[in-house]
Write a structure and sequence with these properties.
CATH superfamily of the largest domain: ATP-grasp fold, A domain
Structural class: alpha+beta
Shape: globular
CATH class of the largest domain: Alpha Beta
Number of strands: 17
CATH architecture of the largest domain: 2-Layer Sandwich
CATH topology of the largest domain: Dna Ligase, domain 1
Strand content: 15-25%
Largest sheet: 7 strands, antiparallel
Order of helices and strands: EHEHEHEHHEHEEHEHHHEEEEEHEEEEH
Helix content: 25-40%
Radius of gyration: 21 Å
Number of helices: 12
Oligomer: single chain
């Protein structure tokens, strides 16, 4: 049994490699960007790749390669069920509605006429989003009908760039004041007004659709639950001062008594229904009821999250420190073993 791993700095692969070496697991470093990647993986039973959704090369070919390998009979992480909807909030709307998951009510439109008719009839505030992006990029609170219509006109007109340099600069400055980044990062934020990222230039503008969600008030945090192969960890993310967004704030509350158990149960239920290997679930609370905002197969590694215990499917709590990236390797090995027995 051999696992192919595509290495990327500051990604899950750092720990995957360490874990394989610690446990004597046979692995091989591969380069998924090479033309001969299929040949590289000929002697491997699986590929593990923590690809990055804002890397231009990964956007071009990561899902296609992973799905092709899975179709050929190899195990992959992330697999199709975990991955096809990643960084696509509109796709997730349909997926979660199809299984009757408690999704924050969401609205997608593909003509200006339909979107404007809805804007005249709905209540406010609403939350406007682009289908892709992370850390609350391009997420706007829409308080009035006129604001909604301006956004809709832009959706079906010039469109939106994924990278907003002004909001990015404000966020860099906030993180600098918190001691979470350095002044050089702020200088780079200024430079982005004149030199957009290559990813932004490559992907072009989002247009031809409009996507909104209901605004769920009275949340000073959201709840993030990270699920992997039948176990999960959970914590709360604090909303930015004077804002409504928690994603990307980098201010965390790890007190487990404040994590709603209903959010854990929903995570396990949805993960089993969708047959996913892993996902980060984001919740807001409507009274006592957790509601899913979105999910993603991966999130940025953050070692301090691993020091506050984890939960199993019966919601039993294990307070010891752990590393969820180890679970990913173990899960892929079990998939290989199961696949070999079936054959």
């Amino acid at each position: 049994m051999r696992i192919g791993i595509h290495p990327r700095n500051s990604s899950y692969s750092d720990r995957w490699i360490e874990y394989c070496e610690e446990k004597g697991i046979d692995y091989k470093l591969v380069n998924c960007y090479c033309n001969d990647i299929i040949e590289q993986l000929a002697d491997c039973d699986a590929l593990m790749w923590h690809y990055y959704h804002e890397c231009p090369k990964d956007v071009q070919m990561a899902k296609q390669l992973l799905f092709a390998l899975e179709g050929s009979g190899k195990e992959v992480f992330p697999d199709f069920y975990s991955n096809w909807h990643f960084d696509d909030k509109v796709g997730q709307k349909y997926l979660l509605e199809a299984i009757d998951a408690p999704l924050v009510p969401s609205y997608a439109f593909y003509t200006r006429k339909d979107a404007v008719e809805w804007a005249h009839q709905t209540s406010y505030p609403k939350v406007f989003k682009l289908r892709g992006g992370s850390a609350s990029d391009n997420v706007k609170l829409v308080k009035t009908r006129s604001h909604a219509i301006r956004l809709i006109n832009k959706c079906f007109g010039r469109g939106f760039v994924r990278y907003d340099p002004w909001n990015s600069l404000k966020e860099r400055w906030r993180l600098f004041r918190l001691g979470r980044t350095d002044f050089y990062d702020c200088i780079k934020g200024v430079a982005r007004f004149f030199w957009p990222t290559y990813y932004c230039r490559m992907i072009g503008r989002d247009k031809g659709y409009a996507y909104f969600q209901d605004f769920v008030p009275d949340n000073d945090t959201d709840v993030r639950v990270l699920y992997n192969y039948g176990r999960c960890l959970a914590f709360r993310r604090v909303v930015r001062p004077g804002d409504f967004r928690a994603s990307g704030s980098r201010v965390f509350d790890y007190e487990q008594s404040r994590v709603p158990k209903k959010a854990l149960q929903i995570t396990f239920d949805v993960a089993n229904k969708l047959n996913i290997q892993g996902a980060a679930f984001d919740f807001v609370m409507k009274g006592e009821e957790p509601m899913i905002v979105e999910l993603s197969y991966a999130s940025g590694p953050s070692p301090e999250q691993n020091d506050h215990g984890y939960y199993e499917e019966d919601l039993s709590y294990h307070p010891e420190a752990f590393n969820p990236n180890d679970w990913m390797v173990e899960g892929v090995i079990k998939q290989i073993e199961t696949n070999n027995r079936v054959r």
